[in-house]
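Annex B. Sample input.
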Amino acid sequence: MIRKIIQIDESKCNGCGACAAACHEGAIGMVDGIARLLKDDYCDGLGDCLPACPMDAITFIEREAAAYDMKAVLERQHAKAGISLNSQLRQWPVQIKLVPVNAPYFHGADLLIAADCTAYAYSRFHEDFIKNHVTVIGCTKLDSTDYSQKFAEIFRQNAVRSVTVVRMEVPCCGGMEHAVKTAIQSSGKDIPCNVVTISTDGRLLS
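Annex B, continued. Sample output.
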């Protein structure tokens, strides 16, 4: 296919490697001290590398090139970061309103109770939170319901080993934390509970 892609003038390259560092897709590499476009299908044609080059050795051209392979690029990025692309979800459904309180997967579970937005804000959500947990999600503000009653029934009817609450830093997420703590108290059980707060820009705050 004909598409926009970068071109490197190797005669201008001083071998600094700034373009390779700026290329998040891994399309550019250093070969014998010279920057080269290694894989057409890793180049998205957006040119993050252009402003990084101090020698103006990179330009856009239109030519026959393999289509940008976003899946391959994401797999490479995740592998480099040590992140699995495999889902860690162990059960279905996950919405708090839909899960039955006596579902067999709750027995002996390490339970993750997450506010809807958290998985979108935090990039390693599957690896760091869902893995090895039974997961339920919801939003106390949007659902306009008292989750504490359902949580209490889940805790009463099942031998839940631990609870991790993942919430956003925004005030409305306080409802989720409150509902879980109220439910544990109402259930009469001593269940360890850990609360993790995520910032709106995806950082772990606690």
